[in-house]
Amino acid sequence: MPFSYRERQNLFASERMQTTLALLRCVTALARGQKGLASSYLPQIICATELGGNHPSSVAFALNAKREHRGDWMAAMHESDNVRVKELYDGLMQWAAEASTSPVRPLLFRIVERSLGYYQDCKEQNPLGAAEFNAGIRALLTFAEGEMGDARRMGRALRLPDIVDKLDAAQKFGVSIDASIDLGTPGAVRLTSAHSSKGLEFDCVYLIDADDSTWHKGAGGMSLYPSNLLIREEKDDDDARRLLFVAITRAKRHLELYRAGGSALQELTGLIDSCEVSAEADQLSIAIETEWRDNYVLDTPELRALLDPHTDVKFLSATALNNFATYEPGCANSLHFPEKQIVRLPTAPTIQTEFGTIIHAMFEEIVNRMEADGETAIETIEAEYRQQISWLDFAPEDVHRYSERFERICRAFVPWLVEHVHGYRCVTEANMQCLTTEGTPLFGFLDLLLVDDAAKTVQIVDYKTGFGKEVPAGYHRQLKFYKLLVEASPEFYGYTVTSMGDYYVEPDKTTGELRPPFATTANADDIAELEQLIDAVWSRIEHGAWDTGAFEQSDAHELAIEEQKSCRKKADKAEIVQRAYEHWLVENPGM
């Protein structure tokens, strides 16, 4: 059916351009030797429909990368038996090799050649998608040509990495790159918003999303279709009524209103006739494209069957336990455990993560060298890691900010650390493994153990860079897990953990004082209860019983919701449901 359509769109928000932007950023990162950053774009590239990807093959590739290549997606692409994936890898390597020397436009067209072909082939079935992609490519070329023209006037030549840097800068600072669509066909159906229809008239008007929640306060973004009818973010009732009046008075002869859900518009109650329209699911077009990450969700029995819990999950860590057992509405915590904990898509390097790694390494070296060299080695060690901070491959302003954080840590926490390790046998980056009574394999790295061999006691010190006003969920469980891990390990048989805490290594900016550590205690009953939870979670992991949705249909959930009514604080309400969920897991191990 011919149609006319006009939409203002920003290049960075264009759904059809996300794969192209990921390709350009991946190529640029590879050209600069930034393998970690380049890998973070690979999941989006691998699953892209226009590059031949689909849901099952994306999951299969992700699992292969984890099993055979320890999560190294670049190596998995290089050694893949899949012709499509291998061609993508070869293309990325070739484009990266040319990025710093080849003219921008020819290289850009080679990179998007496959996407161009895809949208050209599907323009009959999806003309709007093809139009959106073409508008995005035109906007990208216009932007690149404008930047290259400016550079030429200054006697410089830009290459693809320069254009990508300028794109990233534009996105960072909120500069819009216009990729608007304007399709006009005489006599065609016109697609427009209510706001844009002011002053126009049509023989027939079909108004979609004509339900009360979309047009009035209380609409919380839960419409089955995007809410593109209103421009204002806050929907004042009078404004909504005026705009509704505009929309329904555009029709000269015929007006039909459609709603996919919700109740009829209150203003039209009693004035219109309603009827239900039934349709088979396979007859409906997909209204909203799935976000690319959804291509790695194991949401069917066939995809879950690709997992082998006995080989894909060899042990249970504190992080894995928290990911499974920390309740989220809809029990999404356990349902998406395979994607979070097993598939594990590569992510872009962050300065926070790399800074934390450097700080942990410095503390380890300080503690280990204290016994041999004493405090005289500290200045030398600090100088070495100060240099590592300055070499971080991030924006200069960010590196400067983290350098300042490093100096504050050296002034405040290092003296505290030196003082508190005296008199103990120190075990740094302790690699601990043990079994629960029921045989669940546990594993974890502990930052620092202060061991008193005479008294057979251990103190657990867990470093935390950064700080927040609230203790993150799961910290209590994590520290108790560490206590169980130490006391059940062969290395510390007969020892008792007397204290365990998360120590914030950065002082308050204003006072220069360290924050008190977050510490917790646990008696034998607490540890026994935790062990029951661990065994129940492990049983579900071993049997692939990720779906714990039955909890929300249980009496335990109903009682928890009833108990919440007596609480005012959000945290207290969450704790009630969390406690009920853990008890339910223990009683329903999924065997």
UniProtKB/TrEMBL annotation:
Q: Name one GO biological process term.
A: recombinational repair
Q: Which Pfam family, an example, fits this chain?
A: UvrD_C
Q: Which UniProt keywords apply?
A: ATP-binding, DNA damage, DNA repair, DNA-binding, Exonuclease, Helicase, Hydrolase, Nuclease, Nucleotide-binding
In this chain the UvrD-like helicase C-terminal domain maps to: 187-255
Chain ranges of the PD-(D/E)XK endonuclease-like domain: 334-547
Alphabetized GO MF terms: 3'-5' DNA helicase activity; ATP binding; DNA binding; exonuclease activity
Q: Which domain of life is it from?
A: Bacteria
Q: Which Gene3D superfamilies match?
A: 3.90.320.10, P-loop containing nucleotide triphosphate hydrolases, PCRA, domain 4
Q: Does the keyword Cytoplasm apply?
A: no
- Protein known as: DUF2800 domain-containing protein
Tell me the classification of the organism that encodes this protein. Answer: Bacteria, Bacillati, Actinomycetota, Coriobacteriia, Coriobacteriales
